[in-house]
Design brief:
The protein has about 150 residues and is mainly α. The chain has helices at about 1-15, 20-35, 45-70, 75-90, 95-110, 115-154. α3 runs antiparallel to α6 (about 115-154) and α4 packs antiparallel against α5 (about 95-110).
């Protein structure tokens, strides 16, 4: 039951980025491996879980990099988005993770002498990057859980 709770809780990390989703999934896998059956998971599953973990980190990073760079965002704008995600996790959840980074990026880009249109474009790109990265992470997390379940059942 705790393992299932870990898997479900990992999706809470998509809304509250302060919760490390992938570590929560690995906690569930670790609980099973070291607490229930240490011989059940195959090497193929372990390799797939590691590859999917790397893919999870890359998906998030590359989505942000692609959308923000394409929109002309600055390094400070990307930093503001990161701080905004953390702050937004605690401010009007779950909407804070969308609104706060948007506002932070908009302000930071305007402080760098960009027009309101340019700043808005970067802020919107940051929002799209977050949403697309979150969708990609959700899909990868589902695949990770699926690999685990299939290996345990079969």
């Amino acid at each position: 039951m705790i393992i299932i709770a870990c898997f479900v809780f990992s999706f809470v990390g998509l809304i509250y980025p302060i919760i490390p989703s992938v570590l929560v999934i690995w906690s569930g896998v670790g609980l099973y491996q070291f607490g229930i059956n240490s011989h059940e998971l195959s090497w193929l599953s372990w390799k797939l879980l590691v590859i999917l973990t790397i893919l999870l980190f890359l998906a998030d990073y590359l989505a942000n990099l692609h959308f923000v760079d394409k929109a002309g965002g600055s390094k400070w704008g990307m930093r503001a988005a990161t701080v905004g995600l953390i702050v937004g996790s605690f401010v009007i959840p779950p909407f804070g993770v969308i609104i706060v980074p948007f506002v932070f990026v908009l302000i930071v880009e305007m402080l760098q002498k960009k027009t309101i249109q340019e700043s808005s474009k970067v802020a919107l790109a940051t929002l799209i990057a977050f949403l697309s990265g979150t969708l990609a992470k959700a899909i990868v997390q589902l695949i990770m859980i699926g690999v685990f379940v299939v290996d345990v059942i079969f």
